[in-house]
Write a structure and sequence with these properties.
about 210 residues; alpha+beta; Glucose Permease (Domain IIA); 8-stranded antiparallel beta sheet; 3-stranded antiparallel beta sheet; elongated
Length: about 210
C-alpha cells in the first residue's frame, strides 16, 4: 500500500476489473440497460478507490497531520484515562479512503476485528462493527492511538501494519470507505483544529506534540 502510486488503490483493482468485465459482457450481448448499470458501477468504484498524490507539507518533526479525509465531529478531554484527548472524525464515500501515517512513528500494537457494517446510528455500531485499533509511539516517547471503525461499506477495512514497524509521516497504511476514526492523544498535544473542520489526510495539520 505504501508504495502504490497508481491512481487506483490496489484494494479496489479487483472490484474495478470485475465491474469492467461485466460492462464488456453486457455490451457484447447488447444488454443496454445492464451495460449502463455496469458503467455507472465502474465509475463509482473508480471514484471510491481513487488514490491521489498529496502535497507533502514541510512541517516540524513534532507535527501531527490528519490520517484520514473527513470532518471533525467532536473533541473530548478525557479524565482518568491513558490519553488526554479523543478526536472523532467522520469519513464518507465522497472522501478519499486511503489512510496515511500522521507523524513519524513506530507501531506498538495492531488489533483488527472483523464484524458487521451497520449504520453509526445503530446501537450495535460500537460493539459489532469491523474495526482496527492501532497504537503508535512517536518521537520523544509520545504515544497516540487511532481506531478506525467501518460503517456501511461494500468493501472491508484494509490495514497493512505489523508490530514494531517504523513509519514515515504521510505513508499509506490502509484504506477505509465510509467510517469513523477516533484519535487518542496525550496531554502534551496542542490541538490546531475545531469541531466542523474539514480535514485531508497528510495535508491538514491537527496539531503538535509540545
Amino acid at each position: 500500500m505504501r508504495s502504490n502510486l497508481l491512481p487506483l488503490a490496489k484494494e479496489g483493482i479487483n472490484y474495478f476489473i470485475v465491474s469492467l468485465s461485466f460492462l464488456g459482457l453486457f455490451l457484447i450481448l447488447d444488454f443496454d440497460f445492464l451495460a449502463f448499470i455496469a458503467f455507472v458501477s465502474t465509475l463509482l468504484i473508480g471514484y471510491s478507490f481513487r488514490n491521489p498524490e498529496r502535497e507533502l507539507c514541510l512541517l516540524e518533526a513534532s507535527s501531527f497531520l490528519s490520517p484520514v479525509d473527513g470532518v471533525v465531529q467532536s473533541i473530548v478531554e478525557l479524565e482518568n484515562h491513558e490519553y488526554a484527548y479523543k478526536i472523532e472524525l467522520q469519513s464518507s464515500y465522497k472522501d478519499v479512503g486511503v489512510l496515511r501515517v500522521p507523524t513519524n512513528a513506530t507501531v506498538s500494537k495492531v488489533v483488527k476485528q472483523n464484524g458487521t457494517r451497520v449504520s453509526k446510528n445503530s446501537k450495535l455500531f460500537q460493539m459489532l462493527n469491523e474495526n482496527a485499533e492501532i497504537s503508535f509511539l512517536a518521537t520523544q516517547d509520545n504515544k497516540f492511538k487511532i481506531i478506525h471503525r467501518l460503517e456501511r461499506s461494500f468493501a472491508p477495512l484494509f490495514i497493512e501494519l505489523h508490530n514494531e514497524q517504523k513509519l514515515l509521516q504521510t505513508a499509506r497504511y490502509g484504506l477505509m470507505l465510509n467510517g469513523t476514526t477516533y484519535i487518542y492523544l496525550p496531554q502534551n498535544f496542542r490541538i490546531n483544529i475545531s469541531v466542523g473542520s474539514e480535514l485531508k489526510a497528510s495535508e491538514s495539520l491537527m496539531g503538535y506534540f509540545s
